[in-house]
């Protein structure tokens, strides 16, 4: 790249290695970007509460896009932009899934709360372990009036994920629905996806998305990878690697650092 106006990175499977840690060379890469005045932002399906521990553990201070594009927060954790679902709207999706007896565990995310039906569910316990925070057992109606839902997440058995995604997409065509891992399906308000939020942040920074580099590893990263100069991690599915402009090493082998060095960005 002749000029890099900014760098975006997905978190799970990209910024984090397979042990859910940030590699030392990845931290070094971010520090070098900061030294050069090149903006860096994380872009994730995670909620803000699931991103904060990563920033704090590694001493990072940067803007981030959460809930697959439903929220944009600055480096001071102030909301720059948001678009979520009304509580009634999100509740209807959950009720339908339960009526259909879809084999999944659901999660609902507001700006500062993570609501689940049953914290004892092994799938929820595993998710808590991965993200490092605890969910709150309850219902969407238990949230303060007016709080929006920025994401619903379905945790599925891997062999059922595609089937459930298809059923949800058919029943709720006006919503943004994307598979973010072999077991996770994300449901957002209509028109919400990572690329839309990246485009907003680029306008905020006064740069073109084509001047930026974006790293990702999964299907919910694809639009972002195509909007920017896209870099697929080596651990990404073959379909994602084929559609990206660049392919780098996997998330366990310094993929972000290596490509930034190769392109003489750092």
UniProtKB/TrEMBL annotation:
Chain coiled-coil ranges: none
UniProt key word Hydrolase: yes
A GO cellular component annotation in the UniProt record: cytosol
Molecular-function GO terms, alphabetical: magnesium ion binding; phosphatase activity
Hydrolase keyword on record: yes
Protein name from the UniProt record: HAD family hydrolase
Top-rank taxon, per record: Bacteria
Keywords of the record: Hydrolase
InterPro entries: Cof (IPR000150), HAD-like_sf (IPR036412), HAD-SF_hydro_IIB (IPR006379), HAD_sf (IPR023214)
């Amino acid at each position: 790249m002749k000029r890099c106006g900014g760098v975006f990175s997905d978190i799970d499977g990209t910024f984090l290695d397979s042990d859910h840690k940030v590699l030392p060379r990845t931290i070094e890469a971010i520090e070098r970007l900061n030294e050069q005045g090149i903006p860096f932002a994380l872009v994730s399906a995670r909620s803000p509460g699931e991103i904060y521990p990563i920033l704090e553990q590694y001493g990072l201070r940067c803007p981030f896009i959460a809930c697959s594009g439903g929220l944009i927060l600055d480096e001071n954790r102030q909301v720059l932009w948001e678009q979520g679902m009304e509580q009634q709207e999100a509740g209807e999706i959950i009720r339908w899934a339960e009526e259909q007896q879809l084999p999944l565990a659901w999660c609902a995310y507001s700006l500062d709360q993570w609501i689940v039906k049953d914290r004892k569910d092994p799938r929820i316990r595993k998710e808590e372990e991965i993200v490092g925070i605890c969910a709150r057992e309850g219902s969407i109606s238990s949230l303060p009036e007016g709080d929006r839902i920025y994401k619903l997440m379905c945790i599925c058995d891997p062999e059922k994920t595609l089937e459930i995604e298809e059923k949800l997409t058919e029943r709720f065509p006006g919503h943004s629905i994307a598979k973010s891992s072999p077991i996770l399906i994300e449901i957002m308000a209509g028109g919400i996806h990572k690329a839309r939020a990246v485009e907003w942040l680029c306008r905020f920074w006064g740069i073109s998305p084509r001047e930026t580099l974006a790293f990702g590893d999964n299907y919910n990263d694809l639009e972002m990878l195509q909007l920017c100069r896209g870099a697929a991690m080596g651990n990404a599915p073959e379909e994602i690697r084929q559609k990206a402009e660049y392919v780098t090493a996997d998330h366990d082998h310094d993929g972000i650092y290596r490509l930034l060095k190769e392109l003489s960005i750092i």
